[in-house]
């Protein structure tokens, strides 16, 4: 490498490192931390597949998109939602309410509006033999949209433990949640500006849903005028949430023409907000059950981050002490190379964070391991310089020839490490992929630093006479030179 090219390489790499430092300082950008370093909720959801049925991959992908919309509506920053086989992994950094996360993420929220054909009270003799056992959620029926059947009602909040809900005979669904254009949580009004203290969700349909809703409410208004009940069941998942009758203001044949419906929730604002959220973001195409759910506190996440950074700092300090002790001035050059290496790795990870990459504790472990990989590359180069000097060559010649010889060795070693990281990344799941990614990234950065920083600075100092055998490791080189003589 000629002197001019060496200077140009050092200028470029220095500008890049300074640019990274300025960018991170001015914008406040930092690596995107995973749940294990920041704290939050991690949930693994498993699809419920009936015997004899198969799981469609496209349906699972659609389910993930619905969950993503729900998480975005929660306001969670930097969530991670991914497939692990047929399971769905949801990581929500910064969120501590695990129960609410499970309720919102896994809630099927399939909404249908069905005409009521029959009502069976728990006091009637036919109650036990009609439809499902409403005391057990495991046997509740799931009706297809075009299928009539018997569904259980929802008990009131103040119901006694021994109370049983009504059973409703319902017809096919006339309007489904797919027709919802908007869902808004609001206080329930008692008229003339007064509120009841309860909450409700106002559902607004799209144009097609509004026409269907007006038609069914107009039909039920006619049934009311003829002495019938005229009830419309609002079915959420497998339960009749409510079954209101048609208001006297709803006229026969016209119905509710403004395309809105009201779902009364109760006295909890949070429940109303959550229902509006899941209705607004859409129903899950399949039923999901949480197989694992863990919560990592922010304190534990911060402690893990401190432990990882401390381990990295101790490892870096020990490597630097060892390099200076054995290689003197070359050790200082290796230290500067490690600083450049660290700046490039952290800057790259920070930039990748904007594209979705999350740094986990395993990823930090990969970076710590890569410190040794980067140090090895410099050591191979330095040892080759010693070998060249021991044969009687000048420092100017030795630093040039040593790099050519050591470069092939470093490329071979780093290629093996990168290949191992590449295979591990695609075969592993979870945090292990973070380890493989950072290790693979670091091996590439190591070769870059060796070629555009360590090599040119060693060559410049060697050609100027700053590097001498005694400033590298005088005792060992003197012994080697004597043996050679």
Brief account:
With 485 residues, this protein is of the alpha+beta class. It contains twelve helices and 13 strands. The strands form three sheets. Strands 4-6-5-11-10 form a five-stranded mixed beta barrel. Strands 2-3-1-13 form a four-stranded antiparallel beta sheet.
Question: What is the β-strand count?
Answer: 13
Terminal-residue CA separation = 30 Å
Q: Strand-and-helix sequence, N→C?
A: HHEHEEHEEEEEEHEEEHEHHHHHH
The fraction of residues assigned to DSSP E strands is 15-25%
| Helix count, DSSP H or I runs of 4 or more residues | 12
Task: Report the CATH superfamily of the largest domain.
Answer: Multidrug efflux transporter AcrB transmembrane domain
**Named CATH architecture of the largest domain:** Up-down Bundle
Strand order of the largest sheet: 4-6-5-11-10
The CATH topology of the largest domain turns out to be Multidrug efflux transporter AcrB transmembrane fold
Classify the helix fraction into a percent range: 40-55%
Radius of gyration in whole Å, from Cα? 34 Å
**Which regions are unreliable across 5 or more consecutive residues at pLDDT < 50?**
477-485
- Sum up the overall morphology in one term: elongated
């Amino acid at each position: 490498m000629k002197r001019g090219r060496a200077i140009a390489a050092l200028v470029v790499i220095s500008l890049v490192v300074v640019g990274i430092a300025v960018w991170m300082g001015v914008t406040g950008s930092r690596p995107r931390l995973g749940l294990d370093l920041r704290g939050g909720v991690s949930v693994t959801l498993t699809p419920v597949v009936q015997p004899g049925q198969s799981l469609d991959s496209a349906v699972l992908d659609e389910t993930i998109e619905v969950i993503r919309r729900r998480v975005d509506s929660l306001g969670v920053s930097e969530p991670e939602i991914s497939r692990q086989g047929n399971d769905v992994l949801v990581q929500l950094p910064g969120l501590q309410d695990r129960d609410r996360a499970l309720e919102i993420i896994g809630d099927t929220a399939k909404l249908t509006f069905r005409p009521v054909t029959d009502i069976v009270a728990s006091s009637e003799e036919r109650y036990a033999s009609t439809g499902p056992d409403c005391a057990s959620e495991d046997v509740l029926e799931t009706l297809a949209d075009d299928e009539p059947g018997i569904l259980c009602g929802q008990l009131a909040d103040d119901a006694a433990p021994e109370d049983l809900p009504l059973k409703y005979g319902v017809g096919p669904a006339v309007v489904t949640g797919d027709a919802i254009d908007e869902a808004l949580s609001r206080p329930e009004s008692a008229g003339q500006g007064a509120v009841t203290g309860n909450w409700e969700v106002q559902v607004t349909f799209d144009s097609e849903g509004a026409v269907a809703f007006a038609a069914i409410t107009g039909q039920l208004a006619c049934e009311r005028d003829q002495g019938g009940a005229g009830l419309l069941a609002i079915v959420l998942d497998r339960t009749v949430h409510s079954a209101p009758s048609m208001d006297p203001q709803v006229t026969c044949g016209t119905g509710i023409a403004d395309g809105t419906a009201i779902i009364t929730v109760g006295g909890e604002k949070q429940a109303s907000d959550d229902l509006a959220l899941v209705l607004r973001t859409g129903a899950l195409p399949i039923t999901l059950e949480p197989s694992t759910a863990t919560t990592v506190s922010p304190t534990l996440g911060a402690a893990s981050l401190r432990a990882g950074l401390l381990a990295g700092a101790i490892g870096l300090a020990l490597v630097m002490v060892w390099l200076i002790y054995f290689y003197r001035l070359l050790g200082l050059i290796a230290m500067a190379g490690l600083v450049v290496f660290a700046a490039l790795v952290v800057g790259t990870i920070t930039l990748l964070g904007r594209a979705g990459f999350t740094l986990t504790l395993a990823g930090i472990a990969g970076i710590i391991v890569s410190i040794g990989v980067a140090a090895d590359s410099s050591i191979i180069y330095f040892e080759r310089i010693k070998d060249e000097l021991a044969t009687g060559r000048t420092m100017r010649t030795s630093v040039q020839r040593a790099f050519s010889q050591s470069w092939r060795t470093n490329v071979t070693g780093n290629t093996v490490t990168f290949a191992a990281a590449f295979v591990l990344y695609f075969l592993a799941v979870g945090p292990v992929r973070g380890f493989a990614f950072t290790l693979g990234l670091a091996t590439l950065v190591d070769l870059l630093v060796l070629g555009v920083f360590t090599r040119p600075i060693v060559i410049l100092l060697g050609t100027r006479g700053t590097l001498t055998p005694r400033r590298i490791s005088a005792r060992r080189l003197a012994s080697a030179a004597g043996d050679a003589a």
